[in-house]
Amino acid sequence: MNIWRYGDNIDTDMLFPGKYVYICSIPEEIKPHLLEDLDPSFSKNVKKGDIIIAGINFGCGSSREQPAIGLKSVGIKAVVALSFARIFYRAAINQGLVLIECPEAVKFYSDGDNVEIDMDNGKIIVGAKTFSFPKLPEQIIAIRDAGGLLEYTRKKLKKK
Fold it and tell me: Nearest 5°: phi and psi at 20?
């Protein structure tokens, strides 16, 4: 597992360059361009279960789905940040990508620290220290577990 650390105001153009918005829409097309201008090693080295730790206002900028689609499709377990841009937060929920605001854990983290996330109990362990965050609402857990809002809705409709 890798921990990817980024700073403040990481915008959607840094996560997925705008020049690809109208030509890349499925995960296989999006992945090679994830964070290409910010961190060219990301798309080549990201692994399922990796975690991103970031500063304030993660996902600010223009409204686009590709960053959330891409991060979810490459298997990012969660993005832990000081705060998130509202529009990115919504896009992430739609894709089933977990976002956690836990300023104490972000500020405590040092490069090389082991990070474990217990989403069911609202805990993040950084090194040997445990931090709490509000548990994810049941609806968001259900969307995450279904693989995103579209799949969640399909499953709900099939039950009717």
Answer: -105, -5
